[in-house]
Write a structure and sequence with these properties.
Blueprint: H1 21-27, E1 32-38, E2 44-50, H2 54-58, E3 62-64, H3 66-69, E4 81-85, E5 91-92, E6 100-109, E7 112-113, H4 118-131, E8 135-149, E9 155-157, H5 171-176, H6 178-190, E10 195-200, E11 206-211, E12 214-215, H7 216-236, E13 240-242, E14 256-264, E15 267-268, H8 286-297, H9 299-306, H10 312-316, E16 334-335, E17 343-347, E18 350-353, H11 362-379, H12 401-409, H13 412-418, H14 426-443, H15 448-454
Parallel strand pairs: 1-6, 16-17
Antiparallel strand pairs: 1-2, 3-4, 4-6, 5-6, 6-7, 8-9, 8-11, 8-12, 8-13, 8-14, 10-11, 14-15, 14-18, 17-18
Helix pairs in contact: 4-7, 4-11, 6-7, 8-11, 9-12, 11-13, 12-14, 13-14
């Protein structure tokens, strides 16, 4: 669908039934709202809007100098990026600052949905799924490290006593960070997100917090909000919460595991219908098998979205870690209750994409996976035999960000997701250049590894 087909003046967008932004804020004792959108790198950008100006914000009268925000496809001479709040995403943040709230916004330029905006890109894929009678629901696992810096500026685990060789689920390490974890969980509970677990993950200083799955756009917005909440609450205790995929070379990296399920008018579309024998033995429907096949067939190109930094490939390329496992897939494979594969199928209700990491934009990551899965459904694709050993004909996943960018450029499906609102192909080309430049910026830096290896060789 072309961008012109989605043209609409922000001020003319019909607002949903129910209270206005100003009314919701006054009800909750909120004085300021953070009007927020994200760049293509997943960076949240906000203006702090007093509630007295909430009507103007809701009417599409709030502008941003888009180029200044970063990777959003604009030049210094481009006009303002206009934001329009999605009131369904309104979130009070009293636990960070009394009187504060956040609302996620759609972005427009010249009355047209901005094609470089991750939220708009995801909404276009949701629309395409709806044409097939499908709706995507997503649950996200947020892994991150709690760190501080030593006097020399090097990062270290915030809890200096967290030194176990296999710290996953460690009860002592968990409770030593109880105040932070409990505050995050209470915040999620107060927002109605139904948090259900916090745990110490597989690396020293690493934790995971989970909340209930929901529709794709809701979960993507909540991941952005949750990262903000986690970071700000950590700062209050003198720590840095980092979602960097691999901050420590010898330890497990941080993923953004996403549990995905497709739903139709009659309920979940994943379980096999009566009379259908799933060859995998997992009880999946042809729709679910096509979805999984689409993820596998487009895996290398997906890596550029799901693993979007130079550092990402230190996680997926790791041979081992101090705990004994990297928990990151090396091949485009799928399996049952198997955490070594790219796509895990723990039951007949969902698939878990295990390759994405903490640096990924949740909106772009979910959009890319949905687009790849829909491609598999449309083609009636078959994922082949399950199991980590079944990667015949599939090369290892991209080893570097540059490899992933090159795979993206040669893949019509994932490029098509990025270009969902831009038929000229400008968005995917912009993203590929952005990431290629990032790789070469890193490549141009001199590392300690090079000094150690080459200084006197």
């Amino acid at each position: 669908m072309s961008a012109t087909a989605l043209t609409r003046e922000p001020a003319a967008i019909g607002r949903p039934e129910g209270p206005s932004l100003k009314e919701m804020a006054r009800r909750d004792g909120v004085d300021f709202v953070m009007a927020t959108f994200t760049t293509m790198t997943g960076r949240p950008c906000s203006k702090l809007v007093p509630i007295g100006a909430a009507d103007d914000l809701e009417a599409g009268k709030m502008g941003f100098a888009g180029f200044a925000a970063g990777a959003i496809g604009l030049a210094p001479n481009d006009g303002d990026l206009i934001v329009v709040p999605d009131l369904a995403s309104y979130t009070p943040l009293h636990f960070i600052q009394r009187g504060l709230s956040m609302v996620h916004c759609d972005t427009f330029r010249l009355g047209v949905a901005h094609p470089y905006a991750p939220r708009q890109i995801l909404k276009e894929q949701i629309r395409q799924a709806a044409e097939l009678g499908l709706d995507l629901k997503v649950g996200a696992e947020l892994e991150y490290f709690l760190v501080t810096k030593d006097p020399g500026g090097r990062i270290r685990v915030a809890d200096e006593t967290d030194t176990a060789n296999q710290p996953c689920y460690d009860a002592r390490g968990l409770i030593r960070q109880f105040d932070h974890l409990a505050d995050v969980s209470r915040a999620m509970e107060s927002l109605g997100w139904a948090p259900y677990a916090s745990d110490h993950e597989d690396a020293n200083g690493q934790f995971e917090q989970n909340f209930a799955f929901d529709r794709a756009l809701v979960t993507a917005d909540r991941v952005i909000t949750a990262r903000y909440i986690i970071r700000m609450l950590a700062e209050k205790r003198g720590m840095t919460a980092t979602f960097m995929p691999k901050p420590f070379a010898d330890r497990t990296g941080s993923g953004l595991h996403m549990h995905m399920s497709l739903w139709g008018p009659a309920g979940s579309a994943f379980p096999a219908p009566a009379g259908y024998d799933d060859p995998s033995g997992f009880g999946l429907s042809p729709t679910a098998r096509g979805y999984v096949a689409g993820l596998l067939d487009n895996a290398d190109a997906l890596m550029a979205i799901l693993n979007p930094t130079v550092n990402s490939y230190k996680r997926t390329g790791a041979e081992t870690t101090a705990s004994g496992s990297t928990w990151a897939p090396r091949y485009a494979t799928y399996g049952g209750d198997d955490r070594s594969v790219m796509v895990r199928v723990p039951d007949d209700q969902r698939s878990e994409i295990r390759v994405a990491d903490g640096a990924a934009s949740p909106h772009l990551a979910i959009a890319a996976c949905l687009g790849a899965g829909l491609d598999g459904i449309r083609r009636g694709a078959d994922p082949g035999p399950p199991g980590a050993g079944h990667h015949e004909g599939r090369p290892p996943l991209a080893r570097t960000l540059l490899d992933a960018v090159e795979a993206l450029e040669g893949n019509r499906v994932v490029r098509g997701v990025l270009d969902g609102l831009d038929p000229t192909g400008g968005v995917s080309a912009y993203y590929a250049k952005l990431k290629r430049d990032e790789f070469y910026d890193w490549h141009g830096a001199i590392s300690a590894w090079e000094i150690d290896r080459y200084l006197t060789s």
